[in-house]
């Protein structure tokens, strides 16, 4: 099975993960996140989620990914396991901090994570967009945007969590071209985060094309990805519901890997798996409890695109 061992700016070799001691399905975000499901007791969910993140971090480390694992011991941040929404990092030493729609999610922002980045990596600037929250302008990080670090495009599905003004500011600061589209599920409900239906890797992209409501825009997105040299893997609505679009390419010690959940892996066809494995090893992480909160593997990983000190 061929593997690319050359470095790709699309695939970070290090991530931040947050291990929860208190985990439950966030009722504040359930209004527009239809991927969530009703909770059992909080204690049962917390124990399971803690164990799932611990095991996932161990698996990624076994493949050579540098995992910076933080613990969240508070009780006011039920979604802290999804750090990719409140910050992102970028080549050249840049860090962005994002405005979050839910008040409970704003409490997830942690100075110790930013200080770790400054200590372990070369950080030139931190741009904090959280001051946009009082004006109702939200941009929930790499949940709201799926970033093509090679072609410099920020793909974004319109939603209350992806404000066009905030997106334009980010794109100007970080040198991305915004490419916005409308996306709805099979019931006509707008998709709340772009990264549930789209994953961009170095050599391929996985997209829920059926969800993109404008045919012309859909063709533009596909053409743009193909022009960047990527094969486009179309995902069905059922596969999206199984979190197959919520994956992240990472750099391992033996080549690139695609981290995704066991739920997502099971939903992929043999042909789709074969296409992915031409350039990246599929690494399935078992996180069924965490998926009940409406996010999957990609949401649990904040990629580090910074140069180590």
Automatic annotation (TrEMBL):
Position of the signal peptide: none
Pfam family name, one: DDAH_eukar
Domain of life (superkingdom): Bacteria
InterPro entries: Amdntrnsf_FN0238
Gene3D superfamilies the record matches: L-arginine/glycine Amidinotransferase, Chain A
Protein name: Amidinotransferase
């Amino acid at each position: 099975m061929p593997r690319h061992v050359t470095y790709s700016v699309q695939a970070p070799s290090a991530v931040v993960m947050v291990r929860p001691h208190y985990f439950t399905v966030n009722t504040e975000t359930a209004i527009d996140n239809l991927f969530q499901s009703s909770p059992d007791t909080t204690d049962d969910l917390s124990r399971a989620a803690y164990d799932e993140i611990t095991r996932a971090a161990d698996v990624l480390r076994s493949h050579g990914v540098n995992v910076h694992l933080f613990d969240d011991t508070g009780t006011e941040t039920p979604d802290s396991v999804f750090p990719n929404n409140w910050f992102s990092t970028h080549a050249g030493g840049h860090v962005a901090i994002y405005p979050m729609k839910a008040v409970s999610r704003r409490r997830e922002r942690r100075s110790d994570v930013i200080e770790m980045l400054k200590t372990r990596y070369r950080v030139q600037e931190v741009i904090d967009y959280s001051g946009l929250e009082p004006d109702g302008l939200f941009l929930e990080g790499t949940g709201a945007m799926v970033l093509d670090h090679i072609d410099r495009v920020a793909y974004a599905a319109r939603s209350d969590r992806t404000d066009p003004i905030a997106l334009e500011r980010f794109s100007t600061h970080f040198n991305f071209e915004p490419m916005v589209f409308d996306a709805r599920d099979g019931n006509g409900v707008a998709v709340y985060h772009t990264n549930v239906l789209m994953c961009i890797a170095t050599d391929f992209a996985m997209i829920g094309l059926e969800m993109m409501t404008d045919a012309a825009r859909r063709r533009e997105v596909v053409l743009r990805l193909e022009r960047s040299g990527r094969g486009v893997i179309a995902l069905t609505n059922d596969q999206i519901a199984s979190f197959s679009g919520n994956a992240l390419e990472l750099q391992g010690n033996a080549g690139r890997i695609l981290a995704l959940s066991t739920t997502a892996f099971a939903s992929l066809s043999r042909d789709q798996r074969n296409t992915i494995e031409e350039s990246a090893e599929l690494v399935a992480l078992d996180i069924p409890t965490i998926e009940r909160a409406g996010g999957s593997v990609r949401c649990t990983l904040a990629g580090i695109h910074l140069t180590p000190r």
